[in-house]
Amino acid sequence: MGKTTLLRLVADLETGASGQVKADDNAPLDGRLSYMAQQDLLLPWLTLRENANLGARLRGTVSADVAAKTDALLDRAGLSAAADLLPAVCSGGMRQRAALVRTLMENRPVVLMDEPFSALDAITRLQLQDVAAELLRGRTVLLVTHDPLEALRLGHRIHVMTGRPARFGDAIVPVGPTPRQVSDPRLVKLQAELLSQLANAARETAA
Amino acid sequence: MNAASLIRPLVVFAGLVVVWQLVVLVTAVPPYILPGPASVVDAFGGRFDTLMSNAGVTLIEILAGFVIGTTVGMASALIMTYFRPARLWLMPVLVVSQAIPVFALAPILTLWLGYGMESKIAMAVLIIYFPVTAAFHDGLRRTDPGWVDLARVMNATRRSELLRIRLPAALPALGSGLRVAAAVAPIGAVVGEWVGSSAGLGYLMLHANARVQIDLMFAALFTLAVMACGFYFAIDAIARRLAPWQTEISIEKEDR
Question: pLDDT category, B256, cuts 50, 70, 90?
Fold first, then answer.
């Protein structure tokens, strides 16, 4: 089981595995989560604004409220000026921010993120992590990533997945509020530990 | 479309006319084999009303065939996408129907539907149906699976997933199908007219040929060519309109 499969199972997009996905309150997750993939998955025939409230469009619930909320979130993601552009003319960073706004517009308590920023350059990635950490506060976010720094900046509990099929390691719990600063010495130290853990895991898988 | 892209085909056309005139002058070929451009223009002017009334008949056949063929084709593609049994049963029928040359069916259609427009419209429908169905069906099936997942997590109904994601995503593919249909529709209509009819440009060509009015035959041929080109470009413009985001991408790439 890979990390993408794990998220797809939680989102009920994948079948065929045994076991159960449970929330703390034992209520079903259907309708309570939103999903953000590695690709932005923006629809090329809709503007960034229309893409941002795609959920409401699909459910036929677009209203003045939704429109106002869309504009407010686009503004916080720094996309006000680009709201009426088609995705084709936008940069990868803008597109991924629009995808983030679309995820937030769903206003679901659980957010699944599958390497959401991995296709971006380092600086854009750091900026988007800041935006995401701020806008996603108060929600349960399950984020899978290949980037140890991303995990350490954003995570409250970090599990390393090792082996095939994958198992979870014990949680690493970085201190301090998110998003943590890259220059934080505690973060630098944790990153070294995490990297050596990942190296061990890679050796284990290969053996 | 810029000025250069309009001028280029005109220059090519003028060049061909010059070559044509030269061939007639140099070889002194008799006019009942190859009439010169001037006599074709004469025939066009002298028999203008005859040409136009027959062109009208052919145009109606093409348009009716196109509308019916694309409508039925799109409906079939939708049904095949959403009902597995329809896909399993209809696909082989579609493929086999293409193995039979439509030309071979023309005499049968004329026998059944008569010498009027109906048999020609049926020919055009038959020839259009496959490219439209195949292209649209492909487009509907090849929706990015990520978009479908997204719609499911967003609790979209099947209907709104179809209308807001699958259909728009399939429009570029449908556009290709419509372009092919626009190019082959006149073939269906004219072949139908050749087999048996009392009006239309195909009929006029056969009729003029039998009476050795080769200049009129050429005039009819050019009328047909102009009409078919005009029809193709009109459909091409509509197909672009269907998926403007696509042309925007390609223009951007050309600029680079």
Answer: very low
Question: Are A86 and B164 in contact (CB < 8 Å)?
Answer: no
Query: Do A108 and A153 belong together in one domain?
Result: no
Smallest CA–CA distance from B153 into chain A, residue? A34
- Shortest CB distance from A37 goes to which of B146, B152, B249? B146
pLDDT at A57 over 70: yes
C-alpha B8 chain-centroid distance: 23
Domain's final residue, options A104, A123, A146: A146
Using a 10 angstrom Cβ sphere, with 0-12 exposed, 13-18 middle and 19 or more buried, the burial of residue B66 is buried
- For A138-189, the pLDDT digits (tens) are 888 999 988 888 888 888 888 888 777 777 777 788 877 878 888 888 888 8
| Pair of tokens at residue B60 | 């109606």
> Which domain CATH number covers A37?
3.40.50.300
- Whether chain A has a CB inside 8 Å of the CB on B248: the answer is yes
Q: Which fold has domain B36-255?
A: MetI-like fold (1.10.3720)
- The ipTM (two decimal places) reads 0.84
Decide: B138 and B73 in contact? Cβ < 8 Å.
no
Interface check for A16 against chain B (CB to CB < 8 A): the answer is no
Same domain, A100 and A160: no
Beta bridge partners of A34: A111
Instruction: Give yes or no: residues A119 and A203 share one domain.
Output: no
Question: What range defines the domain where residue A172 resides?
Answer: 147-207
Rounded to two decimals, what is the model's pTM?
0.82
